[in-house]
Amino acid sequence: MPVNPVETCIRRGGTDPSTVFVFPSDIAASLWLETALDITGEETLPSRRFIAWDRFKEDAVQASVRGKSPVSSVLRKLYALSLAERNKNAETPFFSALIPPEHVESGSIFASWIARALPQLGLWERKLEKTRGRAGAVLRGDGEYADEESADLAFLKADYTQFLEANELFEPSWQRPPLKDTGKRYIIFFPEAIEDYDEYASLLGDSAFIETITVPRPEADDPPVLCIFENTRAELAAVALAIEALLREGVSSADIAVSVPDLETIAPYLLREFSLRGIPYEFRAGNPLGSLPAGRLFALASECVSTGYSFPSMKALLLDRLFPWIHRDLAGELVSFGIRNHCVASWRENGKDIDVWEEAFKAPTKGETGDWRLRDWYRSLSKALRQMTGAKTFTEIRNGYFAFREKFLDMKKLSPEDDAVLARCIEELNALASLEGKYALYTPQSPFAFFTSILDEKKYVPQRARGGVSVFPYRVAAGTPFQHHFVIDASQNQATVLYSQLPFLRQDRRLALNLLEKDASAAFFSMYAYCGYSPAPASASENANMTVTQGTLCFEPVPAPRSARFSFAELSFSGYRIPHGYFLSTEKSGAPQSNPFMVERDFLARVACDTHVACDTHVAGCTRAVGSNDSQPVFPDRLYSAQKRGFASWQKANVARGFAYLENAYGARLPALVERIKKKQMSGTDVRVSQSDLKTFATCNAKWFLSRVLAIEAETSDAELLDERNLGLLYHDVLKRLYEFIRETDGAFNAAHVKAYRERAQVLAGTATADHAEFRGPIAAPLIEALSRRVTDGICGILERDAEILDGFIPEFLEGDISFYRDGIVYYGMIDRISRRPSDNIAVLIDYKSGRVPSPSVYATEENAPITDFQIPMYVFLAEESPESPYHGSKIEFAWFAGIQEGDYRPVLNDNAIISHGKKRGMILREEFDQAMSSFKDEARRFAEAVQNMNFTRPDKLAWAECQGCDFRKICRFTYAVRP
User: Fold this and answer.
1) With left for phi above 0 and alpha for psi between -120 and 50, is residue 412 left, alpha or beta?
2) Is residue 306 classed as helix, strand or coil in its secondary structure?
3) Does residue 575 share a domain with residue 526?
4) Mean pLDDT, the chain, integer
5) pLDDT band at residue 550, thresholds of 50, 70 and 90?
6) Measuring CA to CA, how many Å separate 549 from each of 204, 240, 495, 560?
7) Are residues 513 and 629 located together in one domain of the fold?
8) Would the N or C end of the chain have less CB density within 10 A of its end CB?
9) pLDDT value of residue 555
């Protein structure tokens, strides 16, 4: 059996203060430090004796490079930004390829890429020297470079070297001096899993005080086994059940870990499995500070200032419930003010920046008076944000942040978790502030933007008390001492680990330098398989598979417990996968462990099936054969807390309920409601009905009740340049005044005067736009011309069609209110236009549509089938039946929709032989419209009865999809109901 090399080394050298253990990752180093206390029996051990490879490189090299400090990733980025700025200001740019000349002004965008390449320039230079002068080599024998990119990299290497020397820094990955013996003994574990170990192999091999321990190899007769599942859901459920079984056996959750390659995709499903089964877990994957809710404060502040306090950025900052605003009421009021006053964005005019909020406070819309408290709070907030984001140094940013926090945030209301995130952000800011004293020359032009970029890069893992199953991204927890480790999705695609040297080079350049990829997959699998730790005494075994380089320590091998369980799903969430080639032995997943959720489902399905005669009908989930009479259903042997809560909720659902308006009529139950309906919907004892009432009511009684009687409206959450509803009102207003002008000047529409009509429409559109309250405010002036043009263009299309088919028609009835009493119902509406031809008195009823135009097919119903749109039937009915109508007693045989945006008519009622609409389809004759008229009258009677009886119940046959898409679903809550 392979040995556990880490445990073996710690047992023999753990108490030696001169021995330092070096691991591939920080996670492995910290976990083995904790485990070493159990192995050695020591109460404490210095953390400096258990370090990661990156820390070792700095410590070992620094001992040989006296008087210099290792360069940090932040300093590399500061240097790269400074270099980009120098390149921009140089008479002749330094670079031809790394920063293309056409992008020299925005060269800072290349800074992050350059900073990442800097540590590898030493290797690049050494590889280049080895190929000097060869055929096709990048570096020719005369020292010249064969391409611009290589020349740029050489310049970058030289310039960066000068930066390091000038600031007494060194690049750890560049150093190759003989390591100095300081009395410490280093044991480096698993070099095969360290990406850049090969660069240091020769240097370390010559040092007698450094030992390297290679990865254990599996026994040929007992290789690790890969368990194969049909799909990922089955795999995750099996892992959760296996962990649950371990916990029931008494294994501590802190001794169990799960590693997942595609953690971002898998995590929600895996953690759900844990939560449903009550398995405690600790999510050990870090997220960038800037992406965390509390860390977003700085990015949101920057967005507000950089966009001139645009409405979306202000809304995102002010309505974020995480930030504990001292004056939350003012924050909400400011957003509402922005919505009402269309504070979409600021703009630049005549070389001057115009603040849309300041302009809105000068002349607010809708006749509201300016709120000086709101104005002063906005000014104070915008000033604080500018001071913080526009600071010239990191110290000024810190001062600005604390001033902003003191004035606007109540930090006592911030949760401990979010407070810790903000504190971590300020730690990064403090580190930057401490750097700028020594490296002031490299302070970036926009310190705040640099600070937020650092927050976007720094990973943060919340500090939690241990006590749950640890969930890691793949690789970071390889070689850790967990007693039980589950490795999920060990597929060829996800679990393959390839290391590439100088990845910033193109593939052809990498091949020219003899740079090949290194497959480290097997090393990681073996680390997972043979590095677990069991506190039980381990007996010695032959040291057959452990390799130790020449050194002074004596090792007694400790057998490695088989701690890892590898699994793989043939069908993942993203498609089919194949198992990783490392595994020579695989096995199909056997019968799943007892799953209370599935057992409960089968139990309930079987019980339900038992209620059917001869079980000749199936309930979903029942697997019993039709007509069988087999054993009784089995109840789960245990229940999770989620199942218990669900059962309790089910029991509560059986409790007798009180009155519910969705199921019962109000009647005279609520006098206040009776009075409200009388006031809003009745004239004496008659019920008022409009086509819009019927359209909503025909869909759902409850929806009509909530929207019309209770007057509940969907809140507007955004400031908009154009409100389509109000734009429609604008169209109607201009059309009414235009056709009044035509009637007054010409008496009837005259196709010869279309040009004059267009000019008049343009004048009317301009004045109507300027006068309309919804289009006042700070952004009105720049938009009036555009709005006027849009309104004019839409109306001119209708004028063109009128010139073709309604020439000589009198625009006789224009937006007239009309009503009609019959059988306890008051029908009322507003007809946009009725044009009449004097020669034969043909009348055309026209309804304007600024948005979507209904299809005539909505009125062509089958016998006894209800219609769903009531506009044309209602207006035709009023025009024909109301004594107020000039056409009372006549038949309306032509009724059209006018699509303003399309500039065309869509006829519903029409005789194409009299007024031709070409090849348009769907038109019907007046006598064919009787079925739609009958359906309209039936719906009006049903509506009146419902209002009289206060009946606003939900229709039984209403489609579930209709409820799902309803704006009132969160008030009605039908879709949330739990029924026994």
Assistant:
1) alpha
2) helix
3) yes
4) 86
5) very low
6) 11, 41, 29, 20
7) no
8) C
9) 44
Pair of tokens at residue 512: 């020219």
Q: Is the pLDDT of residue 613 over 50?
A: no
User: Which residue reads 């209620």 in tokens?
Assistant: 611
Please, which residues have CB within 8 angstroms of residue 439's CB and are 6 or more apart in sequence?
75, 78, 167
Say if residues 218 and 526 touch (Cβ distance below 8 Å): yes
Q: Is 686 exposed, middle or buried (0-12, 13-18, 19+ CB in 10 A)?
A: middle
> 22-36, 49-63, 130-144, 852-866 — which is least confidently predicted?
130-144
**Same domain (yes/no): 322, 446:** yes
DSSP at 185: E
Does the CA dihedral 322-324-325-329 come out positive or negative? Answer: positive
> Residue written as tokens 């790394």?
98
Is residue 196 situated within a structural domain? Answer: no
Contact 947, 665 (CB under 8 A): no
- Looking at the fold, whether 358 and 501 belong to one and the same domain comes out as no
pLDDT, tens digit (0-9, with 9 covering 90-100), for 69-83: 889 999 999 999 999
Range of the domain at 642: 596-653
From CA 903, how far away is CA 829, in angstroms rounded? 24
Q: 508 and 643, same structural domain? A: no
- Choose the final residue of a domain: 425, 460, 495: 460
Residue 722: which pLDDT band, with cuts at 50, 70 and 90? low
Say how far residue 483 (Cα) sits from the centre of its chain.
Answer: 37
Measured CA to CA, the distance from residue 15 to residue 12 in angstroms comes to: 8
Q: What is the rounded average pLDDT of the residues 322-331?
A: 93
For residue 622, the model assigns a pLDDT of 56
Residue that finishes a domain, picked among 653, 671, 691:
653
Beta strands 518-519 and 904-909: pairing type?
unpaired
Report if residue 444 sits inside a domain: yes
- Give CA–CA dist 823/598, Å, rounded: 60
Strands, E, within 192-274: which ranges?
210-213, 225-231, 256-260
Mean pLDDT of 797-813: 94
Its sign, for the CA torsion 765, 767, 770, 772, is: negative
**In the structure, what pLDDT confidence band is assigned to residue 446 with cuts at 50, 70 and 90?**
very high
| Degrees, nearest 5: CA angle 563-230-478 | 25
CB atoms within 10 A of CB 497: 18
Rounded Cα–Cα distance for residues 434 and 635 (Å): 65
The answer to the question of residue 205 being in a domain is no
- CB-facing half-sphere around the CA of 334: CA atoms within 13 A: 31
Q: Which of 350, 272, 263, 356 is nearest to 308 (CA)?
A: 356
Run of H or E residues at 856: none
Q: CA 878, CA 828: separation in Å to the nearest integer?
A: 7
Cβ atoms < 10 Å from Cβ of 566: 25
Tell me how many domains the chain contains. 6
Is 389 within 8 Å of 301 (Cβ atoms)? yes
* Shared-domain flag, residues 819 and 774: no
Report DSSP state, residue 932.
H
Are 98 and 149 in contact by the 8 Å Cβ rule? The answer is yes
Q: CA–CA distance from 156 to each of 117, 220, 374 (Å)? A: 10, 50, 53
Cα 193-194-200 angle, rounded to 5 deg: 135
Band of residue 626 on the pLDDT scale cut at 50, 70, 90: very low
The pLDDT tens digits for 337-382 are 888 888 888 988 888 998 999 988 887 765 566 678 899 999 999 9
Residue 511 and residue 616 share a domain: no
* The pair of three-digit structure tokens given for residue 281, joined into one six-digit string: 């877990």
E strand or H helix that includes residue 640: none
Domain membership of residue 30 (yes or no) is no
* CB-facing half-sphere around the CA of 919: CA atoms within 13 A: 0
Q: CB of 700 within 8 A of CB of 706?
A: no
Q: Give the Cα separation of 594 and 525 in Å (integer).
A: 29
Residue 139, token pair as written in the block? 């570096």
pLDDT band at 539 (very low <50, low <70, confident <90, very high): very low
pLDDT at residue 980 above 60? no
* Same domain membership, residue 955 and residue 829: yes
